[in-house]
C-alpha cells in the first residue's frame, strides 16, 4: 500500500554477507564518521569559560541612566511601568529637595525603582516608552541565582555608575568592556 508520506523503506531481510557477519567494515565505517567530526567546526561553546557573542539586537539587563554630570535621569513618570506588558516595574516617586540638584536632574525622581527580572521578557518597551532616556537594556545579562527574591532588582542594582566619580565602572556598564561569563560566575561565588 502506498504510504501517505512516501518515505516508507522496506526492511532488507536477505541473509547477511560474510563482511556483514564479521562487523569490521561497519565498525570502520562508524569510526570514519566519528573521525570526520573531529575536524569539523565546533557547534558548541565551552561555557562558562567561553562567551557566546551577542546578536546586534541583543537586549540584556536594564540600566538606569545618568546624565553627563552624573545626575539620575529618571523622573518617576511611570511611563515605563505602564508600557511594560509583564507588569515587572514598580516605583515610588519623591520630590527633589533644595540642594539635591546635583543628584537628580528633574524635580521629581524615583526614590524606589524595582524590576522583577523573573517577570521581564526583555521586550524593550520600557526603553522605548521613556521620555528622559533614563532606562535602556544593556549588553550584559541577568546572572543566575538560587533565590527568587534576588531577581527583584532595585535601584542599587540598576543605576549606572556615576560617570564623574566612577568613569571606569561607567564605561563597563555601557558595555564597552562587557564582563565575561567567567567574571560573572566569580562575582556570584562571593
Ligand atoms: S523589557 Fe519589557 S518586560 Fe522587561 S521591564 Fe521592560 S517593558 Fe517590562
Ligand atoms: S525610567 Fe523613564 S519612563 Fe520610567 S519612570 Fe523613569 S523617566 Fe519615566
What's the short story on this structure?
With 190 residues, the chain is of the alpha+beta class. It contains 7 helices and 5 strands, in the order H-H-E-H-E-E-H-E-E-H-H-H. The longest helix has 15 residues.
Topology of helices and strands:
Blueprint: H1 18-22, H2 24-38, E1 62-64, H3 79-83, E2 89-95, E3 108-116, H4 125-129, E4 135-137, E5 152-153, H5 155-158, H6 167-173, H7 181-189
Antiparallel strand pairs: 1-4, 2-3, 3-5
The structure holds iron/sulfur cluster (SF4) (2 copies).
One iron/sulfur cluster binds at residues 83-86, 88-89, 115, 120-126.
Family: Belongs to the complex I 23 kDa subunit family.
Protein name: NADH-quinone oxidoreductase subunit I
GO biological process, one term: aerobic respiration
Amino acid at each position: 500500500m502506498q504510504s501517505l508520506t512516501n518515505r516508507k523503506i522496506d526492511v532488507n531481510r536477505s541473509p547477511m554477507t560474510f563482511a556483514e557477519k564479521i562487523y569490521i567494515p561497519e565498525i570502520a565505517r562508524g569510526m570514519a564518521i566519528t573521525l570526520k567530526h573531529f575536524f569539523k567546526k565546533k557547534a558548541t561553546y565551552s561555557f562558562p569559560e567561553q562567551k557566546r557573542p551577542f546578536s546586534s539586537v541583543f537586549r540584556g539587563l536594564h540600566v538606569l541612566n545618568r546624565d553627563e554630570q552624573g545626575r539620575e535621569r529618571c523622573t518617576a513618570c511611570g511611563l515605563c511601568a505602564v508600557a511594560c506588558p509583564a507588569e515587572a516595574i514598580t516605583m515610588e516617586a519623591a520630590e527633589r529637595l533644595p540642594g539635591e540638584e546635583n543628584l537628580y536632574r528633574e524635580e521629581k525622581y524615583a526614590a524606589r525603582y524595582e524590576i522583577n527580572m523573573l517577570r521581564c521578557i526583555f521586550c524593550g518597551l520600557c526603553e522605548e516608552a521613556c521620555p528622559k532616556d533614563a532606562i535602556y537594556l544593556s549588553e550584559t545579562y541577568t546572572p543566575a541565582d538560587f533565590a527568587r527574591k534576588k531577581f527583584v532588582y532595585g535601584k542599587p542594582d540598576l543605576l549606572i555608575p556615576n560617570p564623574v566619580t566612577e568613569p571606569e565602572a561607567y564605561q563597563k556598564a555601557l558595555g564597552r568592556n562587557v564582563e565575561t561569563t567567567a567574571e560573572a560566575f566569580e562575582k556570584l561565588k562571593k
